[in-house]
Amino acid sequence: MLTIQQAIEQQHLAAGSAQKLAGRLTWATQHLFRKLGRAMIKPLFAQCSSSTGKVGPRLLTALKWWSEILSEDITECKAWVEPKQRSCHLFVDAASTPPRCAAVLIMDGGVWYTDVEPEEAVMKSFMQRRDKQIMTLEILAILLSISTFAEKVKDRKVILYSDNTGVIWHVSPLCTFVVYCLS
């Protein structure tokens, strides 16, 4: 909190200090308050490459936001109790060229696999994106896995693994999800 206040008052935040602060606050954005504050981390990471240390308007806004949030007495309690449901592990992935979605389900000592090339009509229905539709395909891989393995995962805690950081949370009435994004 002291680093933030000094940066606001002095209108200066050295690259090394920005890097340390960004690291600490990134943990907060990933583990607290359902990922609130991720947009306010970007100006800190941008400051990591600053040669002058001058605090610009975007960084100043982010620093003031963090100062306000951290000064509030906000707490979030979570029970340290594992669900009594049996669990299974679902690994999903996608490729953009050529478009492909795949999933592997591991549970009760068995392994099941599915993969599909989305139909051209499905691909054309997506909004144009610069990422070759990889985000859309990653989400489609989750939907493929749930629809393919719906009966197997019903009433289970599904631990879902995705290598796409945009895939943060998915909720289904069929099962409970714990999502891990792998880098």
Q: What is the topological layout?
A:
Layout: H1 2-10, H2 15-31, H3 42-47, H4 57-71, E1 87-96, E2 99-107, E3 110-116, H5 120-125, H6 134-148, H7 150-153, E4 157-162, E5 176-181
Parallel strand pairs: 1-4, 4-5
Antiparallel strand pairs: 1-2, 2-3
Helix pairs in contact: 1-4
Overview of the structural elements:
With 183 residues, the chain is α/β, with parallel strands linked by helices. Helices cover 39% and strands 21% of the residues. α1 (2-10) runs antiparallel to α4 (57-71).
How many helix segments?
A: 7
Summing up helix and strand content along with how strands pair, one would put the structural category as alpha/beta
Average per-residue pLDDT, rounded, comes to: 80
The strand order across the widest sheet is 3-2-1-4-5
Give the SSE order as H and E letters.
Answer: HHHHEEEHHHEE
Give a quick rundown of the structure:
The protein is of the alpha/beta class. Helices cover 39% and strands 21% of the residues.
What are the main properties of this structure?
183 residues, alpha/beta, Nucleotidyltransferase, domain 5, five-stranded mixed beta sheet, 7 helices, 21% strand, disordered C terminus
